[in-house]
Amino acid sequence: MQKWRNIRKKERTGPNIVKFEQAKKALNAAREDYESEHNKLMEELPQFFNGRIEYFQPCFEALIKSQINYYTECFHIYAELAAHLKGEEFSVIDDEKYEVILQQKLSDIRALSIVIDD
Asked: What is the percent of the chain where pLDDT is above 70?
């Protein structure tokens, strides 16, 4: 664009007229390319923007389903392990009872001959 303006300001001699015409053709070609690409983008960008839901929705759905599957499996494994360790169905114990059990286990560990109490 700047080149075209500079040539237009020069004297109207033979070589300058040829340069002017070449610059004018190059400018018109660039303008046509720009308008073509602009029109394509104006058509495709709204379609692309509207397509985001169709793309992300299955991705989020798959993520949520995998999380549900993972946490369900973790719960079942934990429940099985708790039942196996307790010899009964999983039950919740209160904090006081847990503290007593914990202290009893720690006392048993301290009573071992391989443990040195500082």
From this structure: 79
Place of tokens 């009872």: 97
Per-residue pLDDT reduced to its tens digit, 92-109: 678 888 899 899 999 988
- Return d(Cα 76, Cα 90) in angstroms, integer: 11
In whole angstroms, how large is the CA radius of gyration of the chain? 39
Phi, psi at residue 91, to the nearest 5°?
A: -135, 150
Q: What is the DSSP letter of 61?
A: H
Give residue-wise pLDDT tens across range 1-41: 566 566 556 566 677 677 778 878 888 999 999 999 999 99
- C-alpha dihedral over 5, 8, 9, 11, to 10 degrees? 160
- Residue 10 contacts residue 16 (beta carbons within 8 Å): yes
Does this model's pTM top 0.70? My answer is: no
Sign of CA dihedral 56, 60, 63, 66: negative
